Amino acid sequence: MSFRTLLLIVLLVPAAVLGGAAALGVRIPVPVFGRDYVLRFPLEEGAIPLDLPEISGPSDESLPLVVIDAGHGGRDPGAIGEDAEGLKVQEKDITLALARALRTELLRTGRIRVALTRDDDRIVPLSYRPEIARQLGADLFVSIHADSAGARENVSGASIYTLSEQASSEAAARFAARENDADRVNGITIDGQSEAVSAILVGLSQQRAQEDALDFAGLVVREGGEELAFVPEPRRAAALAVLRAPDVPSVLFESGFVTNRLDRARLTTPEGQGRYAAVLARAIRVYFARRADLANGGE
Questions:
Q1: Which of helix, strand or coil describes residue 34?
Q2: Average per-residue pLDDT in the chain?
Q3: What's the whole-model pTM score?
Q4: Within-domain flag for 219
Q5: Which of 127, 73, 64 shows the shortest CA–CA distance to 97?
Q6: Alpha helices (H) in the chain, listed in sequence order
Q7: What's the confidence (pLDDT) of residue 298?
Q8: Could you tell me how far CA 217 lies from the centroid of its own chain?
Q9: Residue 190: what are its φ and ψ, rounded to 5°?
Q10: How far is residue 243's CA from residue 172's CA, in Å, rounded to a whole number?
Q11: What is the mean pLDDT of residues 217-240?
Q12: What is the secondary structure of 232-248 as a DSSP string?
């Protein structure tokens, strides 16, 4: 069929239909701007619709609240390794298991409330994770991850990151670039923080939150001691999007490397996961005990 023939069909068929309808006295409604042919959905500019998770633990809202973030999820598996049998080991599964183990350990004493950003295998965009902590009024935000060293199977150990506008090392900068790209891998784009918030007030609030986060990071390394294997200089800083809550002390705990045999064994067994949970829980309890002392006028 030639282009000219196709053009004639496109122009003449509708005209013939309209002419026949007119001859028969049939009226064909034509859409008019302003009618209900177009559905309009009002959107609040700058708002982030969140399905806030449930808070587990005591109902006493005066008790501290920890939001635990299991990194990655859904179609974003995170780092990937293989076990001795060639089975795939995915970061998203490890982080969820560690988050659940830490929640169980914290709830055991009954003095800390806990919420998880995800409690199943689903995607939570990067910007939503710290925002969940903010909207819940969290006192501490802990994002749990596991890393990959590619073919370098000898690289192992845990580390803990706090926020820094300038990455503390080239390795930290590469890590930040990889993690900050996660929601683009997921195919999700999230806008930045609301412009209504004063940049000065945000900066001051974030500075205080970062100081508290540094204190907590030191406690994790101290409490880990000989129980956890850390990388050299485990306290690190990077410009990680997930740590940008301006008023919630936030850390990212890099639990180990899925590409390392020993780390993988620790991260995928109930015994190993319990050891990580016990260390983090002790650090969290000491952290809040210090905050309580400071609030009561102690040093």
A1: coil
A2: 81
A3: 0.76
A4: yes
A5: 73
A6: 3-23, 91-107, 128-136, 170-180, 182-185, 199-224, 261-268, 270-295
A7: 63
A8: 18
A9: -120, 135
A10: 14
A11: 94
A12: EEEEEEE--GGG--TTS
Q: In this structure, is residue 25 part of a structural domain?
A: no
Q: How many other C-beta atoms are found inside a 10 Å radius of the C-beta of residue 287?
A: 24
194 contacts: CB under 8 Å, gap ≥ 6: 46
Predicted pLDDT of residue 75? 94
What is the C-alpha to C-alpha distance for residues 9 and 5, in angstroms, rounded to an integer? Answer: 6
Structure tokens at 61: 């809202």
Helices and strands counted in the chain (H then E): 8, 8
- Locus of tokens 């590409």: 259
pLDDT, greater one: 184 or 117? 117
CB atoms within 10 A of CB 223: 19
Query: What is the spatial distance between Cα 81 and Cα 88, in angstroms, rounded to a whole number?
Result: 6
**What is the structure's pLDDT at 1?**
55
For 48-138, where are the alpha helices, taking DSSP H only?
91-107, 128-136
Structural domain harbouring 275: 65-295
Query: 271: domain CATH number?
Result: 3.40.630.40
Quote the number of domains for the chain: 1
For the chain, give the number of residues: 299
Whether residue 70 lies inside any domain: the answer is yes
Residues 6+ apart with CB under 8 A from 189: 183
| Amino acid type, 117 | T
Angle at CA of residue 75, ends 72 and 80, nearest 5°: 65
Q: Flag whether 38 is in a domain.
A: no
DSSP single-letter state for residue 56: B
Tokens matching residue 42: 């009002």
Q: Which of 294, 298, 296, 283 is nearest to 140 (CA)?
A: 283
- CA separation, residue 233 to residues 161, 165, 173 (Å): 11, 19, 15
Cα-only R_g, the chain: 26
Q: 143 in helix, strand or coil? A: strand
